[in-house]
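Record pair follows.
FIRST:
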Amino acid sequence: MSITRELIDYISSKPFSQRDLDATALLALDAVATAYAGSATPTGKILLDWARSCEGDLGRCVLLMGALTHITETDDLHRASVTHPGCVVIPTALALGEQVGASAEKILVSIIHGFEAMCRVGAAVGPMHYKVWHNTATCGPFGSAMAAATLLDLDAEQTMHALGNAGTQSSGFWEFMATGAMSKHLHAGRAGESGLLAAQLAAHGFTGSPEILEGEKGMFAGMCPDPNPDAVMAKPEDDWQVHATSIKPWPSCRHTHPGIDCALELHRQINGAEIKSVELDVYQAALDVCNRPQPESEYAAKFSLYHTAAIALLDGVVGLGSFDQNAREKTCELRGRVQVNVVDPYAGNYPESWGTGVRVSTSNGQEFSASRKDCLGDPELALNDSQMRTKAEGLLDFAGLKDNTRSTICDSILGMAKHKVRPANIYSSFISHLSL
């Protein structure tokens, strides 16, 4: 039996509970609010111009919603797979679920299934894959296809074909980071669109490779120098992967978050003293992705260990306005005093834990330090339901939505789990908000 078929059988037979549905509804709220916020950005407006110039078919709208969800860097993160499953799986589930008239529960279950497939494949591709390939882009189609297969009631063989053709569409390079290009958002959208297409084709009898992962010319062979195929089916007794998914409290690359968390703590201790030097102890992937001492754009600043630590130390708060030109000018001098080191235990704990240590010396001779094994928003340091809603309402406010509209969106999505009601056209309301 192929790895893909084993994964499908596992997912389809694993029971779900009310606790699972509740957690998934919160993730759906986070993704939808993030998509609304993305639509209010300059990059989002480019995507909207494109969307208005072409036919608004379901696949293209999934691409749009997924891309918008990935713009503000506030979407969720799954550590072991180094993926952002929400921006891929949730647009597919909401759009297709509404089209086929699925129940609220079935939509949530499709999200659970999609996260599981995407995250388990992502955990198997190996650390070298991440150096060149963007895991959200390459592993995302598996998640989208699995969610769509659930909603389309595909049988195991059809689902296997769907995942086979999802995998053959895997793509997405990190090269965009060299110039700060917008490709990362396209990665999320395309992953969702590709998985949806694969499942729709499978429903019509279109076949895909059953060994797309482990085959001689499959994904592991072509894209993964150090894969771990056993990781796909490891720890079957674990909770669903939705419970292992982290929520971002700050709008920047997740690799910067443990440093931000430490720096915010130290800001309170330093109490305005002049900072002489800053040292960040991190893991290798954080340096690989976020080694930007002189970020020249807002987006680059979101991927800068130097800027994010500096702005947190100086301001004591990190928000959507912490990366613009004024913020970058503010941190310019302090960024030059930041040194980044790759050391244990942070290097050895990654990717299970994304940690950082920060040490600050002040001009009056004092030294301060803080460390984090995990980030705020990780399952170990989870945001509560109230904090999740506050985050969502803040993102919806950024998108220009009024109080009553924000409340309606939050109540509707959370009601999917609490009351099992069919969602009040969450997807079509989003598309309507965009005037598409």
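SECOND:
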Amino acid sequence: MNPLAFPVEIILEKPSDLDKKADRERVLDYLSQTIDAELPIDVDLDVLRQLPSFLRQSNYALRLVIAELRERLEVVAAGQTGCYGIALDLGTTNLVASLIDLSTSAKIDVMDAANPQT
């Protein structure tokens, strides 16, 4: 399975007098070292606004959700406990939707129906 969004657990070093990088750069440096990505990585503006408080509340250990968006990867959520996706199979006779836990790739539930276009 190759999902368009996936969770990543990060554990960052705390800022110090010798390392005063911004939180965004700290996160992006960590991701560029741990994710084998050929696409550039950025942080969504809403996530960026919440990132400092999330990092400090979690003692710099945090779960991020990264999505592939138009030729780049983007951190779209932070601090989420679950990460779920939906797989759709739009067949000529049946429609099937599966709820997937993206952390474990486990199928949570499946719903199917006859395709009304048949």
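COMMENT: The chain has a mean pLDDT of 90.
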